[in-house]
User: What shape does this take?
Amino acid sequence: MPLDVLLIQTPNVKGTFFNLPGKEIPLSLCYLASFLKTRGLTARLLDLDWHGRISPMLEKTLAETKPELIGISAYTPNVALAADIAARAKRLAPSTPVVLGGFHASALPERTLREFAAFDYLAIGEGEVTLAELVEARRDGRALGEVRGLAYRDGETVRLNAPRPLLDDLDTLPFPDRRLIPYRRYVPDPGNYYRLPSSGILYSRGCPYRCAYCSKSVFQQRLRYRRIEPFLAEVRHCRDELGIRDFRLEDEAPTTNLARINELCAALLAQDLKITWLCYSRVDRIDEATLRLMQRAGCHHVTYGIESGVPETLARINKPLDLERAAAIVRLTRRIGLECKVNFIIGFPWETVADMKRTITYAKRISPDLVTFNLFKPLPGSTLYTELDAAGRLRHTRWEDYFVTSEPLLFAAPYTEAEARQVLRDAVFSFYFRGGYIAQRLRRLLRRPRHEAGIAWRGFRVLLREWWAGRGREKTVP
Assistant: This one.
């Protein structure tokens, strides 16, 4: 029987250096598939990240399913690969239209349709209702202009329909159907899970902040929470029917409302679900009481986005954090017994090599359990992308170069490409190979040997590959 919608996850692209090996369940596509089923539509999910050779798997799946429509998910670094997959699909099934969803399509809809002929439609913003209405409109012969949140071609003209309102009640969405993919095979990056199988889960959608480097504002910023009982029902479903007891809250800002996260923790404790979980947080939206409650409720890890150790940079990216308070929160998180990871970005358009090194020095001083250093990339949809594009400072060659560990993309930056590459490399090696850090990890290894050994081994392999690949590159930047 022909399929209504084939949903395709585009493979991740790799950066120039420090590529982590993890794979995470494509939760957004699992949500789409489940929602389509509530509208009486059939859906199947093909995660091409699992297949080294794309064409044979695509050909086999299209021959088996004969879908009425193909939906592809992509973000900026892999949008060109998504377009290539769409073009291959059209050669195999010329009459089957392709719709693209994700941050890139939402940030640059007109440019995307003009640049990539293989995409027939774009779903802008939250895609569940838009995709279902697109299938229904095509089937019923209704005008495409009635489908809110849709972009499409009308001859040589690109039509952008009225925006799709955000879903007010997240509990109207069914649970994401994780059975559509081999969910037990997914192993996230080191530090992003406690035990396997592990899955993402959503307690909220939206982020009220306006960080200048972030593209998430294209999905609008209103924060909406699920009710406690439906969330716990999904946890029980995953635990009892799928054997999943480890979760990653994929919320963009779960601790913005401390009362909400405290309510969730209290419910987890009351029901004694015996799960483990991790989440993200801002350092200025957390306190000791909440961290201790989270730890008692099964949380084992918190990731903070501090981004920079330079106050001037924090002000310019609209994230004016108190760096001393941030350091105290990192120390507190570790003292409570939670694993702590901090994300940093170096190489903002105004930063010098000295500024980048200030961030690295700060990272060593606060010494979280894990750290990521990313090169600044002006992501479409962000304030900085708009400003740099208007100023003619984007050295755009390929969308793949927007991966956070690829080459710099700026004209007239205060640093050279070679300097940026080497500072990033030095940052990672100088952080992880400090004597104090090694002692810190050994202490954790004694407390949680099985978990820590797995993180250490997978992380060491990444560092070893980069060390081997980087032999003969530039010397340390003075």
